[in-house]
Structure formats: structure tokens, C-alpha cells
Design a protein that fits this description.
The protein is mainly beta and 355 residues long. Helices cover 6% and strands 41% of the residues. The strands form five sheets. An eight-stranded antiparallel barrel has the order 17-18-19-20-21-22-23-24. A hairpin with a 3-residue loop joins β22 and β23. The radius of gyration is 27 Å and the shape is elongated.
């Protein structure tokens, strides 16, 4: 049986929080959670939502339409894992800029432009991408004082909208005693809209800052740095159940099945030292390790030397490869996962390749 939890963001609450080693964090009234700016990365206002929590009914919803449904899992989950600054396909890059003591502003760069995310601060190291590359979970960790996990941010890199789950929401009223160090682990994606995470709690230890260490030792006594007394806080399944946000960039052009098969490096069956490599826009010729030529091309339904052929008039199953730079044209005789046969229009000879 799975327990369900719900969280609600109260945007009219204004608070001032002062933390050792961090600047003051000011709550702004009625600010647009997850709003973005379509411009180069700039310093952003450091602000956080601090929701009120009602243990009887908790609802978590952002003003921009994003909504999370959280339920308790009984077992450890296995799923998709892709970490780092780049999305699985490499077409989106996260960008952070240090503001103060490990607190970073956040932006993301697509193929077209850089988008700065307003009113959010993150840690610079831990990211977990969905297989589609649409969402990324940012695990915020206090590296300055070694305070452990401070929360997560679920960011839609197509729209720039996000939801933040704070430390207090992660604890969800569980009595931790003096175990103030949270640890989030096993962040894995179960499908394109669901991920899991496990949260434990233990005692604080060395921070690298003498003043912080002194206060912790005075408070914890023999439990200072105790790594043997850890409790499980939660084992959550998090589902994105509502996302009505609009993409910032035009939709990606779908690759034709022909292009998907063409992409990659092919070896000539007539001369094993001769290669041709297809990228999405170019054909690169090489002999051995030496590049011998490079041309731009388009896929088309026809092959006319005087025609201007482009992708807009190409079908889903184009039959010709037209070289824009030389007016050379090839007819695709056969194309499979590992085999390619081309007819050189005008010469009549056949070129065959394998991957």
C-alpha cells in the first residue's frame, strides 16, 4: 500500500532567513515561480519559496501549472540514469554561475539561445536527466558547510518552468531528533514523467569551518560525526502529473527514417581505406585517417541539377542525396542498418558501403 503526500506552495508568505555561510534569502510576494528570461546568463535574485505544511493534506503545485504527485514506495527502484551538464542527446546544456559559497544561479542553453531561470539558486554538481531530455532533477547539496541535501528542483528545459521541493518538505514532519544531515540518493527515472528518490538522515560532522565545527560538537556531543545511526526518511515515487507549460523554442524537426539510417560513418566495400560519414547537414569523405573532402547535402524526392532542393520539400522517405555545393546527386538504391548502396547519377556506377 502506498501512502500519498501533497504539497502546496504559499506565494504570499514573506520571510527572511539568515544562514551561516550563506547570504540572506528573501521571499518575494507573488513572484512567478519558474519564470525565465530569454537572454544571456545574468545574476538572479536569490529567493526561495517556504511553504506552510499541513500534515493532514499536502498539495504541491507551482503557479505555472506544474504539479507533482508523491507516493511512498516499498522497494528500491531501478531505472534510467543520465547525469552531467548535458541532456542525453547533448542538445541542452545546464549553466551555473557561482554567487556565494556554492550557491549558483541557473540557466540552460538550447540550440537557439540561452535562457536564464529566475528566482532560483542551485548546487553545481548533481543532475539527473529523464530519458527524453525534457526534465532534469537538480539535487541541491550544501558543499560549503557539508550540511547535506537541501532539496531538489525539477526543471522542464523546454519551457524553463520548475518546481522546488525544499528540505522541510522532504522531511515532511518526520522526527529526526538531532539528525540534521539529509542525504538524497538513488535518483532514477522510471519513465518519462516519473522518478524515484530515497532520503535518509544522520548526524552532522566536520564542515571544514572551525566555528561551525565548534557549535556542532557542543550541540551533538558524542553524536558529532556519528555515521552509524542513520534513519530512513522516505522512499518516494515522484510523478509529474500536470505540465501545461509552453516550449520556448520552435519544435525540433523530426528526422526522417532515411536520415536516421544514414547518420554515421560508412566504409567502402571497394576500398576498405575509403570512408564517408553522414552528419545531419554534411558528408565528410576520408581516406584512412585523413579527411579528403566535405560537402553539405539535403535529402530529396527528386534529383535535378538546376533545382534548388531543400528539406522543406522533402518527404518522410526521400530517395535522393543532393550535394548543394557541387550539384552532385546520388540515388539511394538500398539503405539498411549496416548496408548502403548509392547510384552516382550522371556516371551510372554503384557505390556500396557497410557500417
Amino acid at each position: 500500500m502506498r501512502k500519498r503526500f501533497y504539497f502546496i506552495i504559499i506565494t504570499s508568505l514573506s520571510i527572511l532567513i539568515s544562514c551561516a555561510g550563506t547570504p540572506s534569502i528573501i521571499e518575494q510576494e507573488n513572484h512567478d515561480t519558474g519564470a525565465i528570461q530569454n537572454e544571456e546568463l545574468t545574476e538572479v535574485l536569490i529567493s526561495r519559496e517556504q511553504p506552510q505544511i499541513d500534515n493532514k493534506e499536502l498539495i504541491f503545485r507551482a503557479e505555472n501549472g506544474l504539479e507533482l504527485d508523491i507516493s511512498e514506495m516499498e522497494d528500491i527502484a531501478f531505472g534510467f540514469v543520465h547525469t552531467g551538464m548535458y541532456s542525453p542527446e547533448g542538445d541542452v546544456q545546464l549553466i551555473t554561475k557561482d554567487l556565494d559559497h556554492g550557491l549558483h544561479s541557473l540557466a540552460f542553453r538550447t540550440n537557439l539561445k540561452t535562457h536564464s531561470v529566475k528566482d532560483i539558486i542551485v548546487s553545481p554538481k548533481s543532475y539527473s536527466w529523464s530519458s527524453s531530455g525534457k526534465y532534469v532533477v537538480i539535487h541541491n547539496i550544501d558543499y560549503y558547510a557539508d550540511d547535506g541535501s537541501t532539496g531538489i528542483v525539477v526543471l522542464n528545459v523546454q519551457s524553463g518552468h520548475y518546481i522546488e521541493i525544499t528540505r522541510d518538505q522532504l522531511i515532511n514532519g518526520v522526527d529526526l531528533g538531532k539528525r540534521d544531515k539529509l542525504n538524497i540518493y538513488n535518483i532514477v527515472w522510471l519513465d518519462s514523467n516519473r522518478f524515484s528518490l530515497i532520503i535518509s538522515a544522520g548526524y552532522l560532522g566536520e564542515s571544514g569551518h572551525p566555528g561551525i565545527n565548534y557549535n556542532r560538537k557542543a550541540d551533538l556531543g558524542e553524536n558529532f560525526g556519528n555515521k552509524g545511526d542513520i534513519i530512513l526518511v522516505a522512499n518516494w515515487e515522484v510523478e509529474i502529473v500536470n505540465d501545461e507549460s509552453t516550449s520556448l523554442d520552435p519544435p525540433k524537426e523530426e528526422k526522417s527514417e532515411t536520415l536516421k539510417l544514414l547518420l554515421g560513418k560508412w566504409q567502402s566495400m571497394d576500398d576498405t581505406n575509403s570512408y564517408v560519414m553522414f552528419t545531419e547537414k554534411e558528408i565528410i569523405y576520408s581516406y584512412g585517417l585523413e579527411v579528403t573532402g566535405q560537402e553539405t547535402y539535403v535529402l530529396s524526392d527528386s534529383c535535378m541539377d538546376t533545382a534548388v532542393i531543400n528539406e522543406e520539400n522533402s518527404s518522410d522517405s526521400p530517395q535522393y542525396i543532393y550535394m548543394e555545393t557541387s550539384d552532385t546527386c546520388f540515388y539511394i538504391i538500398d539503405l539498411a542498418q549496416q548496408y548502403l548502396a548509392l547510384s552516382f547519377i550522371g556516371r551510372g556506377n554503384t557505390l556500396t558501403y557497410v557500417k
